[in-house]
Structures are given as structure tokens and as C-alpha cells.
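Reopening closed ticket. The problem is back. First fold of the pair:
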Amino acid sequence: MASKYLNSLSKKEYDKLTERLNSIQNKKCYICGDAIGLELQNTNIDHIIPLANRGKDSEDNFALTHESCNKSKQDASLDIARVLHKLKKIQDKTLEQEGKAASLKHVLQSFSGSKYDFKYKIESDSITYSFSDIGDNTIIKVPLFEDNLSKEKTCFIEVPIEYIHHDEIINPRGINNSISKLIKEFEKGNPQLHLTIARINDGKIMVFDGQHKAVAQVLLGSKKLLLRLFLNPDIDRLIETNTNAGSTLRQIAFDKSIMSQLNNTLYAERVKKYQEDHTLNDDDFSFSEQQLIDYFKGENVNIKKYIFDSIKHSITHHKENKLKDFVDFEGKAKELPISYSAFDKTFLRYFVNPKIFLSTNINHRSDEGLNPRELEINQAVRLLSLIAEKVYIGKFKPETGVYRIEKKIIDHKDADITDNHLVAFRISKEEVIYNWLQYLIKVIENYFNNTGRLFDNKKLFQEKFDDQLWQNIENFLDHLSLLPLWKDRSMAATIFAGKQNYDFWKTVFQTGKSPDGADVLAKSLNFMEMIKPLNYSENC
């Protein structure tokens, strides 16, 4: 909403107001907090509380910002914009330093939280505690409640953020895009309807549910959070309950990637339990996946899922997996080309068989570098990284993103979309990946056939790939990425208009034509031709 007050000012009056606000704000942008150089930077004057929210159209409701900061705030008030900018700084720093999304842990650390252990004493029906580390020597006593069914004991307490830690075991999620809505909701003064839930672990209060609500409150300046606190809980039961809430019960919006991570934790717990029950040392893995399944008979279906998800998690989040930087794990972003759902249904589906569980010891031939699971994981990671190098790194631009790419081309608004970016975008569609991966798998199988090696195609990545096979794979990816259709912008309104099904691209790759007979490729794909070294003169 336009400001009648600002529009009534002459240029000289506007400049003087700019200088006054700059002085009041100690020459710092209201949103980002960085320095403002009036002679060097474009600035805006805006309402702190928007007029639409009944903010006053007067000087006491104005603030000075960098023009770029003000444009990026969209519909948020300046106060909300400032909070979101703080969060973005935390997120960017975490991504740069740790290569992952920021979580409650990183927000707490940025606001001087997560410093102290919790000092408490449990009596029969109450818990007594104090927060003396921050100078509050008040001794507080609150009642304990016992759940009638689970028999777990909990209490309700208000905890300073200095004593709150993030539970990365039960809830490994990072902060997703919904956080801005929560911040806006709480900023209005609307109450929190569901409490944040935590447990005591090794003297620390660990939040494992309600992370986003906690983050929103901390960002808005809350120094204490009201928690439901579990005392001496059964950790396995909490992990399983939290996992089931995000899967079978659908109570929590856990994406598939987080489910894999939680099941990976549950798998590690079952391995530890097996070792304890069989008096084995922590580093003794002289038992097999099948023995684990047989031992935990009452939950063998779950154990199989834990093993499978553990392998998927190890591949996906491997530190050397370069492709993970181009996977959208939240499912809502518009900057990254591959959704986690597509990644799971294509790459992971081809690399790991969910029905194969090994009867050899977990550490079988590890000392030789030929452990089947380690080979499977490491070779899958190497292939994913090779795909990233050939298609995405230095080519796909997150700042350009994936939103309405084809529509921009049709509308001739595609000046910022490079050919390399377009290739990466189009080759990343789930139905496209699913079909070209079939040819890549044939490259691998054909190599083993031609060398006379017996192999199980259900355990393909558990067979060691030699240097020539890796060269064949690299050649295939070169040919694939240079197919003309990926750069052909005339296909934006036809072949790439909307989502096609799997059979559509199966037909295209097998015949060179779409199902309705339109020419797409000069000829059908031939994986034997695609493993030959690339003749660049033919592809220029």
C-alpha cells in the first residue's frame, strides 16, 4: 500500500528523512543489520508495521533499508523480514560449514542457547530443579505425570534456552520452508497449540518434537520455552513412536529422506541390542543381516525396512556424494532440480534391492575392500558424483531454479536460462531419469557379460566395477548429456509441456519419436554406441 506521507515529500525532504533514519539506525539496514552507505547504495524507506496491518503512515513507523533487502521481503513486515534474514544467515552459514540444512541446534547456538546441563532431582511424584547457571537460584518443584498406557513419566516446565538442546537422534530434520508461516503466526500474538516435546539425556534437555515451533519462538525473541519433558524414557520406543507418526500414522510431515534417517538410527539400535544380547563387543560384527532379521522375529518386517533405509541413507548423505547438493529434500523448494521422491524412485531403486538381505557377516571382507554392502554404497556414491560432475556442477544455477522454466521459454522470458541449465533441468525429470537409467544399468550388465563374469543382477552394485567399466559409464553420460533435445527450446510447448508418464519417455528413447509420432531424437538410443569415446567434432 502506497504511503501518502512519503509521496507528499519533495526530494529534498525525502533525502533529509533518509539521513535522519540512517542516523537513528546507526547507519545500519533495518532488515539485514549491515552498514548502509548512502552515497554508494540504493535505499528504501518503508513502514515497520505495514499499513495493511493498521500501521501508522508517519515517521515513527518508518525504517531505512537496503533496496535489495526491501525487495526480497515480499509481503512480510520489516520486523518479520529482519527475523527471516537472521534465519537465512544461520542457514547459509550451516550449509557452507557443514553441508546440510540448519536445525534447531544452529538457531539455539546463534542465540546463546544450548550451554548448560539440567540439574534436577526426581522424587516419587514430583521433580525439583533450578537454573543456577544463569543466576536463577530459585528451586522449582512441579508434579510428575505417568501415562496410563506407556507408563512413561513426564512433566511440564518452562525452560530457558540456555538449557535446551536439539535431539538429532530422534528428530534429525532441518528447518523447512514452513517456518516463515509459523513466525508470522506467532508474531501476531496467536498462541502455540501444541507443546514442544523433549527428553532428558545424559543431563541435557533434548527437544525431539515441535522443533519448528521452538525455532519460530526463539527467532522472535523468546528466552524460555514451555516443554513437555520425558524423564528417563525408553529411547527405542520414542524413536519408533516418532518414526511411526511420520509414516504409518501420518501425523508428522516427515519426508522420505528423514524417514530413512530415522530408520537408520533404529537399525543401529537393533545392531547394538543384538551385540548386547550375544555378549559381543561394539566392534564385533560377526553376524549377518539375515541373522538380525531372524533374531528379532516379532518385528522382522520392520528390521528389513531399517536395513534397507540404512543403506539408502548411507548413499544419499555420504560426504562424497556430490549429487546430494542438487536434491530437494523438502519437496517444496523451487531452486533444485531433483526432488527427493524422484531420487528415491529412480537412483536408489536401481542401486539397492529392498528384497536382498545378506547371509554373510556384516564385516565380511571389509579388510580387503570387498565387503558387498560397502561396495554397493561406495560405487553408488561414485556414480552419483560422476552424474553430478557431468550434468550439474558449474552448469545448473540454483538462483535460476526450476520454477516455470518451460513457460518462461514459451513466453520468451528465458534470457537467464543457459543451455547447460536447461539440460540439467530437463534431464532431471523423474520419468526421464527412470528411463535413461535403464540404459545405464544395461551398460554395466553388458560389461560383465562381455568379460565372462558371473553376476547377480539383483546385487549389481555389490560387484566391483573396474576402470574400463567406469570409463564406459563416463562415455555414456557424455553422450546422454549432449543429446540435442535437452537444449531444443522449440520443444517447450510440446515434448516438455507438462509432466509426461514413464511410457512416454520409454517410447522416445526406444524409437526416437513421441507416442503420437513426433520426431524427438535423430534415432533411438543405443547404449553400445553411447559407451564409445565421444567425438567432440561431431557434437559441436
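Second fold of the pair, where the issue appears:
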Amino acid sequence: MKCSWLGLTVLLTSLMGRGEAQTTPAPSYAEIEASIVSLEKQWQGLDPATNPELARATDFVKGLRTDLQAYSGTTDADARVAALNRLHQSVATLDQTTSPAEAQVRDDLRYWLRPRIALAWAEYQTLAQTTKGSPERERWADFIEKTLRPAVGALEGAKTPADRTRAAESIDNAISTLQTRTDLPANAHSDTLVAALASLYLQPNVEVTIDHSALTSFIMPKGIVEPGPIFFKGQWSYVTPGPVQGIGFQPTADGVQIVVQQAFTSMTSIQGFEQQMEANDPRAKQATSMYRFSATTRDDAVVTMVALFQIGTGLQLAQGYQHAVNAAVNTTPVAGAGFKRMFASLLGQNQKAITDKVQQGVMAKLPGEVVSNARELSGIKSSQGAARANALFRPYVLDGQTVGANGVGITNLRLTTGSNYATAHGNLYSFDSPKPRRATFPQPRKLLSFQPGITADLHVPSVLANFTDGAFKNPEIQGITSLQIEAPAGTAAPGTAPKISRNVEFPAYLEAVQQGQQAGNASQLVRILKPSRAPDYSVASNGDLLVSIPDFQLDVPAPSQLKGGAVGGPAASVYRIAAPSVQLGLSVFLDRSNPAVPPALKAKVTSFNLDPKFSVKAIDKDEASAQPLNPIVSRVVSAGLSSKIVGQTFDLPVAALNRPDVALVDVSPLDPSGWLRLILAPRPQG
């Protein structure tokens, strides 16, 4: 059936009209804008008659938006500073508010302003350190005006993920110039300028926090005391763990330090007790000739273990003890020594008296020996335990601040411990990544608060960039020029994976398509070329992850309803869709639909946008015969492609987070700043 122009227009409209996708990276002030929107919702239904201040408040909010846009919408440094000054005055105005919603706007605005004012002040101090008219002043002014400020303005006002990536690289290069000082005169405030830039645009991209409740869940079931027999210095002791009496963190700025206190009981039946009696007192032979002696010690103790873990030195353990030692001495008569026992009894040395005397001697000496042996044994056990742990961990330590394995690492790693939590933050990257990227924006204010359990905060754009940059440098990936993907036909079993072939040349692909069309094969066979470089990532204001793929080229079978004819264009077996770039929008969510399996982190394609300069060519026999389609049919083809892609859902590679001891239980919405919080919990231990 031929397609009329009206029908074609309706088709195009229905395919393209899928709602407004947000395709621009969110501004740095997105958190403030969200608070403003919440405030405006509270004003709905109000009018000047019931709220005389509504008009003033509306104008105030309008001014806030104007100043925020002015800061991010210009590369003129003076205009940005002027906007910062006005916004600072707005904070002062809101300091008098009693409205929680207005206070939220104020606090978000203050959090956003603080590092940007610090950067502006650092720039001013750096220039003020030099003499007007001097070569040093001219060189610093040239660097700040032509290198630093344009990079900051480009990042704040980025309109595409690629713009934001290139701007972040420019800021990184500017910081390198400041740190090396090979091209700039000495300046007392250059370090301040570096710190101000880094605190805004080059932050760690991962932060993991464990709180007291999670630590307790890991330690409480088993504690730190192992039950069972221990052999030391010729004696067997049986240890029975008691209750864990305390678990906590000890604050330190360098490492993770915890303290655990647990009670236990140690029972020791002393081997060779009679020989020890005789060795210590020759008169004891008289007693041992009449009675057989045995002794058992009981140590009701409390051990306090302090564990300090640092990247450079590994695990260090120190233990202290509180002891309560008792001993029980038992005697049994020796056969044939009745006359001796009778004579001793006449002298007042009956069995009880002798036993009590030996007991007193034991208690005068044995507790000290028990404490001394316990101290010596704990030192040995602590050293052995730390050595075993460090032997397991040492292969993953690449240097004093970097750990990693299997091509993945965290560098610039820093461990700190507070009174109720421990934190690790650093830069997650791929070993193959040429220069690991850091977070372009600090964590949003709402993620600064701690949540119970274990949290992992990720700056998704920089983490993804590090892994895809690394993948593109991997020799195996470098050898790939194209991928042919054959999606299962509709009759295939559910869950059937697509068939992927590498480096399929176009003639072979074209032949496979034509054979499939002749055989009526319902499978979808596409061929995509590898881009010249890795994608760029950012986040839209609605929380969608934006993925910009350069040099897009996709070959797809030509739909039968568009092949040939006045409207469909030239005859074709394959359509080649090419564009300078394509941008995908992805919604990240936690799928709980299957209660039989752990929740899975997934992404759903919400938008697919080709660069306006895209083209669609019809290929029938070979690439040399490719002919461009007219603009309308090209739009229909691109819209059809979008309709197949939008709505697709796939798993994100975080299955490693679901471990026997830890489970992924929740995830925060992806923040426009790029940050995402994964919430984990210890699994119950059997």
C-alpha cells in the first residue's frame, strides 16, 4: 500500500512526538532551582489579597533565577563576579526568613556560592600579589583572563556533554600549569587558587561510608574471639567467647580505626603440675608422695582490640586485657601411702590443709604467669592475624594511595574515621584510562548527610568516562572497527542473547541482510562502526544520564514499506544512518520487580537524538551506489530508529555489589550534578 503525504506526516509526528526530552546538561545550580520550584508550589493558590508579600517574593525569586543564569550564561568574568555579589546579598536577605521552604533555598544557595566566591577571591588575591604594570602582573592576568576564566565559564555554561568534558579538561590543564609553575611567575596565592579550583571542579568521584550500625552487623555475630583449643608453651587451653561488650570507631585523619571489646573465658588444665610443684619447692615431694595433684586455671577476661588500617602500612592490631584469674587444685590419695597421710594428719597436715596450702601457693604465682602468657600469646596472634590480612591485601596496593585489581583501581585514596563512621574517598578509574577524570562538581548538599548502613556515592559521568576512555585504549578494543549485532527473532526463547560479531566488513553484512530478507528472517541485523573516541557523559536537570557518542554510523535493513517509490526514495537493502554525534538519555533506576532475586540497577533509554546534520543513505548493491534519501524520508527513518531504541532497558554492571556479605538495597535518584548514592546493607550472617 502506498503511503500518502498526509499519512507520512502523521507517522512522522507520532514517532517523533514522544514527549520533550531534556538533552542539555543541567546547570551547576540545579539543586537551587529545584528548591525554588518547591517554594513556588507552596505559593500556588495564593493571591496578593491573602498574601501581600507574594508579589515581592515572586520578584525576588525571579531575580535569583536571573542572577544564576547570568553567572552560568556568560564568559565575562566581571559579569560573573557581579552576579555572585548580588546572589550573596540575596542570601543575606533570606537569613531573616522563618519559612522552611525559603530556608531551603537560602541554604542551597549558600552551599553553591561558597566555593565560587572562594575561587573569585583567590583570583583577586593572586593578581593583587603582583605589582601593577609589571611583567609578572601581565603574565598572571593573561593566564587568568585567557585560560582560567574561559575554562570556568565554559564548564558552567556547557550546552552539551562534550562541551562539559572539554571544559573540565581545560581546567585540569590550568591546574597542572599552576602546580608545575613552569610557565608562570612565583606567586604566594597560587596554591590557594589551585585549592579553590579543585574544590569545585576536580573532586574525588567515589566516596564509601560505613556507619556504626553496619560495623556492628559485621562484627557482632562472631566477635573477635575464636572458640576452641589453643596450645601454647606445652599447655592446652579451651577458649569460650563471651558477649561483645563494645564496638566503635576511634577518630583519625589517616586510616580506618575501630575498637572492639569482648569477654571470654579460658580454661587450662595444667600439664605436669606435680613436676612444677617439685621444681619450685623441694619440700613438695613429701606432699606428692601422699597425694596426686592436678590444677585447672580459669581466666575470665575482657580483650580490647584496636585495629588501624592504612593504605601504606596495612593493618595494625593492638590488644589489651583485663584478667580475673582463679585456680582450682584437686588431690587424690596415693595408694600405699596411708601411714604417711596418718602421720601428717597428726601434725595437722590432713588432705584439706595440704590442698589449701598448695592452692595458696598457686594463687600467689600462677595468675601472674597466666597474664604474662596471655600478653605474649596475644602479641603473637595479633602479629599473625595482621600478617595474614596484609598478605591478602598487599597485592592490591599499587602505591601509598592507590589500590586496584583486574584493571580497575581507586587512586588518591584517603581513609578517615569519625566518631560514628569511617569514610574512603578517591578517584575510581580504569588502568587503561590515559588520565583519570575527577568529578566536575562537588556532591550535592543532600548527599552530605550520612545514612545508616553502607553508602557508596558515585559521580557517574566521570566514572563512566574513565572506564570507556580506558576501554578505548585497551588493545583488544582498539582492534575492533565494527560490531554486527543480530537480535533474536520474535520466536526466540525469552532471554536469548543477541549474537555479536566483530569486524564484519560491509559486503558480508549486506549479503547477510539480503539473504535474511529473501528467507523472511525476522531477526534484526545491524552493523555499527566504533566511534573515533569514547563517549561523553553528563546529566540533565530531570536526572537523565546523557551519553553523547561521536562519529555515529549505523547500518540497518531497509524497511520494506519504504523501499523504492517516489516517497520511499531509491531502492535499497540497507539504510546507512550517519551523524557527527548521537545523544542518548538514560533513566537509572532500581528494578525490584522480581522478589526472587536481589534488586538490579538498570537503565532505560528515554531519548535518542541524532545531530541535526545527520544523513540517511540508501545502499542496494554496494557502498559506492549509496544515495541520500530526501529529508522527509530521512526523518521517518531516524524516527523509526528512535522508536526501536527508546524504551529499551538493560542492566548496569554493578552486580559485584551484591556479595555474600553485602546487598544493594536502594539507590537515590541520579542528581543533576552527576552524583548517585547506592545504599547497601550487610547480609545476615548465619
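Update: turned out to be a display glitch only; the data is intact. Residues 24-201 form one domain. The first helix runs from residue 5 to 16. Please close again.
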